[in-house]
Amino acid sequence: MKLAMHGGGSLEVSEGTFGAKFNEALIHQVITAYMAGGRAGTKAQKTRAEVRGGGRKPFKQKGSGRARAGTTRGPIWVGGGRAFAAKPRDYSQKVNRKMYQAAMRSVFSELVRQDRLIVVDDIEIARPKTRDLVAYLQGFGLERVLILVDECKDNLRLSARNLHWVEVVDVGSLNPLALVRFEKVLATAAAVKAVGERLS
């Protein structure tokens, strides 16, 4: 199949990569697994067995009028342990390579169907100036956009780092969350070809 390029011309791409069916459930599973893999899982709290102190009975068993207590380290005491203490854990979910690639093909295909993928020959920023990149994007009528390149150049990276609504990624760092976060994707022809080779 052919993708229309901005400014005229077309780019020959794989039908299987950019013309796949939309699989919402698979995309959701892959994105959920990607986000879960980014969680640190280092939260830790102490149970009543791990906090310090509490070895002595705080007051006698009878005669005080209060409920009996054998330690001050229970969950209802100030300074006591947590009843269901959080422990370090691994949040990562297994997603095999075929599922990941199928989800990425589905996302790219939907971007093409919705005219959210804009392909240009190249993105040239002459100097590392944010206003130069803003002016360049305004020429496309773009604001919130993901810029996909085959190789991230310093001028482009430095120009975009102060724009919270613009993200620049190369093909090697591309992830499914970045693709669905932005309304539009501005990609170079070389990047689209590289994506086609990776996902074919």
Structure description:
- The protein has 200 residues and is α/β, with parallel strands linked by helices.
- It folds into 2 domains: 2-39 and 93-199, Ribosomal Protein L4, Chain: A (3-Layer(aba) Sandwich); 44-87, no CATH class.
- It contains 7 helices and 6 strands; from the N terminus they run ββαααβαβαβαβα.
- The chain has helices at residues 15-18, 24-37, 97-113, 130-138, 154-160, 176-181, 189-199, and strands spanning 2-4, 10-12, 117-120, 145-149, 166-170, 184-188.
- A hairpin with a 5-residue loop joins strand 1 and strand 2 (10-12).
What's a quick, concise take on this entry?
34% of the residues lie in helices and 12% in strands. By secondary structure, the chain is of the alpha/beta class. A hairpin with a 5-residue loop joins β1 and β2.
Structural class: alpha/beta
Distance from N terminus to C terminus (CA atoms, Å) equals 14 Å
Strand content: 5-15%
What is the third-level CATH name, the topology of the largest domain? Ribosomal Protein L4, Chain: A
Integer average pLDDT: 93
Strands side by side in the biggest sheet? 3-6-4-5
Major sheet attributes: 4 strands, parallel
Give the total of domains: 2
Number of helices: 7
Radius of gyration, in Å, reads 27 Å
Can you say what the CATH homologous superfamily of the largest domain is?
A: Ribosomal protein L4/L1
From the coordinates shown, what is the CATH architecture of the largest domain?
A: 3-Layer(aba) Sandwich
- Let me know the number of strands: 6
